[in-house]
Amino acid sequence: MVPHEASSEHSEGSSHLLDSTFGSRYGQSSLPKYSLPETETPKEVAYQIISDELMLDGNPRLNLASFVTTWMEPECDKLILSALNKNYIDMDEYPITTEFQDRCVNMIARLFNAPVEDGKQAIGAGTVGSSEAIMLAGLAFKRKWQNERKAAGLPYDKPNLVTGANVQVCWEKFARYFEVELRDVKLREDYYIMDPAKAVELCDENTICVCAILGSTYNGEFEDVKTLNDLLDKKNKEKGWNIPIHVDAASGGFIAPFLYPDLVWDFRLPLVKSINVSGHKYGLVYAGIGWVIWRSKDDLPEELVFHVNYLGADQPTFTLNFSKGAYQVIAQYYQLIRLGFEGYKNIMENCAANAKALAQAIVDTGRFKLLSKEVGVPVVAFSLKDRSEHDEFEIADGLRRYGWTVPAYTMAPDAEKVSLLRVVVREDFSRSLGERLVTDLKRVLQTLDGQPSKLIQAVTAAVQEKHPELAHKGAVTAGDVKKSAAFDEGIRNHVHRKKHSGHKKHALAKTNGVC
């Protein structure tokens, strides 16, 4: 009997190892949300229950809000997995990874026509996306401006920078975090990028730089960097200033060199001193890698650079972050040597062709007008011709029912009256997926056409809540409520609330899928 009892005890103590995941006690337990659990969870169970909850996330491939890469070749995935445990910052331990970063900087700098001698190292750094790159570039401009002002015995406590109102939110973060006044050129209807002439008008002796965007997050349009350079150069000469240009090429930096080689926007323009680009967008690498390139060593103040010595060589570093994964740098180097100029050109041409086909199909519905341009990032931005019954936000909600994430948002000041939808055409967005999207878009429109307008629905619900006597005979339709005097009151209140909530909607647009 003793052996039998021992066996029984062992069975009770290890039963959780034998039960199926969904037959164990863990199937009746909620995942911890606030406190560390007291006991361990078997690895198979932890994997299963977390995987189950992640099923409710959207499909990254159908997330058309994001510019960020969602597919890479299996060979690169293997390289990434093998490097997950490497810390990029440990240059002594991982000198080859550091060498890969330097090679990437060299290739990207020359792609942007930086004046670098053959065989010489370009000036730049790998960053955590374009946000860090912009912070670093902005700091370099601020410090250089301060140094020049100090040397001249002039005040240096009120720096400002000039951008369009359509800049990505990271520019606003830079201005707030590093105490720089942000002067933004307002947009206007049918002109959704920074006006170069108005940007120059906002400049003064305290302007550390003017930022031009190569690929607006709102509609993918390129700003006119050459005209800005010419106007600013003239202003500098008139006033004795030395205001430079930074190009935020987060989205367009890996587009323009391959699709529009004759477009002059980069270091070919003398006032362009630095450029940032997102490797994780059209650089075709998973999220987490950006690049900042300076025209020359003179444009990066030496006091901002830290130096480390590995394998007998000096390695300058300029970053805000410290520890970060090395795999993004490795993945970027893989893409650069795997694709080369020809490979990138082929992919960007495919993206542009698919964007053009999608744009035409959307226009052919007869319901929309395009806000994106032929020259720019492969983005299709479009708005309803008639918003009297339904709006773009309802269409975005409807597309989610088919699995698509297509953002709806309002334009930046002073074009907030314009609301739009935007589809980012990435490498993995095929012509077939585009056709499926248009099919589902038509279904959403058909469904909305059979419903009362959003305004009628909202006011009807509000009136029924405030005047329950209207529903004393049972269910009341929107048509019934429209005949009541209370409906007129509800309309006025709804319009008043909508008018005073416009600023909030714009604030959300800066962060809600417009990155």
UniProtKB/TrEMBL annotation:
Region (Disordered): 496-515
Reaction catalysis annotation: L-glutamate + H(+) = 4-aminobutanoate + CO2
Basic residues biased stretches: 496-508
Lyase keyword on record: yes
Domain of life, per lineage: Eukaryota
InterPro entries hit by this protein: Glutamate_decarboxylase (IPR010107), PyrdxlP-dep_de-COase (IPR002129), PyrdxlP-dep_Trfase (IPR015424), PyrdxlP-dep_Trfase_major (IPR015421)
Pfam families the UniProt entry points to: Pyridoxal_deC
SUPFAM superfamilies given in the database record: PLP-dependent transferases
Enzyme class: lyase
Cofactor(s) recorded in Swiss-Prot or TrEMBL: pyridoxal 5'-phosphate
EC number: 4.1.1.15
Keywords: Decarboxylase, Lyase, Pyridoxal phosphate
Family per similarity comment: Belongs to the group II decarboxylase family.
Protein name: Glutamate decarboxylase
Provenance organism: Sphagnum jensenii
